[in-house]
Fold this protein.
Amino acid sequence: MAEPLVFAPDYLLPVHMQGAVGYREGHEPDAELLERVGFFVPAYIEHPNAGWIARMPRLEVVQLPTVGFDAVVPKLPTGVTLCNAAGVHEQSTAELAVGSIITVWRGLDRAARDMVEGAWSHRRGRSLQQARVVIIGAGGVGTAIARTLEPFGCVTTVLARTRRPSVAPIADLHEILPRTDIVILAVPLTDETAGMVNDDFLSRLADGSLVVNVSRGSVAVTEDILRHAGRLDFALDVTEPEPLPETHRLWSTPGVFITPHIGGDTDAFPRLAQQLIGEQVECWRNDQPLRNVVASG
Amino acid sequence: MAEPLVFAPDYLLPVHMQGAVGYREGHEPDAELLERVGFFVPAYIEHPNAGWIARMPRLEVVQLPTVGFDAVVPKLPTGVTLCNAAGVHEQSTAELAVGSIITVWRGLDRAARDMVEGAWSHRRGRSLQQARVVIIGAGGVGTAIARTLEPFGCVTTVLARTRRPSVAPIADLHEILPRTDIVILAVPLTDETAGMVNDDFLSRLADGSLVVNVSRGSVAVTEDILRHAGRLDFALDVTEPEPLPETHRLWSTPGVFITPHIGGDTDAFPRLAQQLIGEQVECWRNDQPLRNVVASG
């Protein structure tokens, strides 16, 4: 029997990789091909083809092209290792978080809409200088955001479950929120973080504070966002539900800026993902430990 | 005769300053009051009240609340010192430059307009990681932009008239432009820089490059921007003419993102300007050298 195959979206496959087959996202593969797959990279963003896993009897590794992995864990067969794409998307997400803050605080979203009317409407913005920023989550994304904010002159606190050097414990959250200008959500979606940003959380924030969500929509309760929007500002790259239906109230609620889950998706993504996949396949074939292991079936 | 007065917009006057009078922008002062002014802070942004200078016989210092000073130089009487607000606006302008780049490269302007339609329209953006950035101007603004871009992982070159450590000479411009992804204009408006960004300049840029103007509208030739827009992207915080008339073609030209000259105008401005004015008045009264002297009448 031949070596098990590497099977990945064609644009994520390193060039000249032996024993690898690329697929076009949205196309249905041969059942025979799936039976030969040992290393599988599901399709980008919501992994619509994760169901193929059940048809891969020789599967050993699922290498996700995303940082988020919550949707794939329940589908993982016994003995299969799940890896995420930590390192590939963090800086792109940090760029978006910083860009979204500046967009809301300097009114760039309003300027974009004013262009349609030909309206030159000067208003004073808010500066990040001396702003009090809280980042919830000290993983790759939270750390990248903190690092990227350094030259902006804000006062940044990173919060996580466990106390570590330069990270405050999440237990301090309720005390810190009232003295915060910007809260950035950079946590994975887990039982603990689902619905974390609810009415109680938002009520602790002072008028005019900004909440930035670049993690998962379900970390915040949409009804509670709607309740506080206007008093608070929101920059949401992720929503619940997602995609947000055309008629959803969130689109037209003042104080809400929405981007369509573009956090990690830049031209840096295929480049860095190809590099990661190349290295992981090398480890897998040589029985070396894999990086970014997030679960084992 | 009493000490000459400090005369400044009321929101820029340090609290508890003796011998100082605040004025409300847009209001006409008493002629008698003007005759007593020794230290004058003109109104913010375009200095609409710079004409008052001619009615201030005891004037010694004009302290601008802006970095740009070109419009006031011709109005400066003999013996009067002109100071700008270097240090007050740079970081706010750097924030805007960075925010404008992320807005254009990640499609945040399109996302703002898509919100009106309720359209969730995911597209891949461009990342600053490894982008080749050229900043023209090594003054306060150019330096602040370079510093702020540091954690973004781009390859930044600062150009200025004279070679200095970590600054390349402007003579290299023509050679550098074809290998540039983003050009940021951060020069003062002078005879040398007026119209610098013309058809010849823009023709040297590769398709898809982005030009960011946070200096003065007249540094670029509007007709030439219109000629290259689409092939190139533009993020313009300043335009010629300014304000841009409602029916101007620039508003609706694809590849152009316009903000209404908000570069230096954030909530950090009154705070930092008050501090500067306080220190300058102190120097003036004690015959100490002033900071930020840009011209002498």
Q: What stands out?
A: Chain B has eight helices and 13 strands. The two ends of chain B are 24 Å apart (CA to CA).
